[in-house]
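Quick one: structure tokens for this chain, please?
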Amino acid sequence: MLRILKYTLALLLLLILLNRPAVGQEAGMRVRGPRIGVDLASLALLYFDPGRMTLTFSADYEAWQDIYPVIEFGYQTVKLEKDIYQYQSNGIFGRLGVDVNLLKYEQTNVYEMFYAGFRYGMSYFTHKANDIVIPDDYFEGISDAYIVENQLNAHWISIVGGVRAELFDNLFMGWSVLANIKLAQVKDTNMVPYNIPGFGKGDRTVSMQINYTIAYRIPTQTYKPRKIIKKKEITAEPESIPLQE
């Protein structure tokens, strides 16, 4: 997984260094193209939750002005080694939805976003447990017990809100909050999943997530916006000069 991350970051860096827009931006036109990102918040889990490794990618495209269809996908592994059990889980997940930019910009070449959206998510994963130890207080003590690997899945919807800024030409960074609501889940009668890839804790119906994404847009096209929000001109009234006695 770390090797995949290195290749991904190297690719993003290469795109930035080779940043030569395929199309120039004419007056009154907007640039668009596929935007590819990686979630940095999921990588922070290596510090806060060392037993869990999650890698999340995203792609969106301004199909219509201020409307961005989005796909997110990733992979998760969990390996917990405790005194009374060892737990392992592996799985993939995907989220499909749309974001709507709520900002009203003054120029066509402004791409900052304050957005709201939704996702439909799904996850397919396996989990198992080995070296389970049950204390002597129960069943006269059991050791080296195990739970065989089970294939599970879950489905949910997410309500999303976030912001995104353009740091340099075509390079974006931003954060988002996801409220996940579980719709369905194939359950293991013997064990609750530690974490459902892409959703959160396995014993919860509602979970919250925070994403912090860096993304690069590949400029492939220009289009004419359907509207341009112009800056209002404010005429300042002359200041009154106090009369001196």
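The two ends are 81 Å apart (CA to CA).
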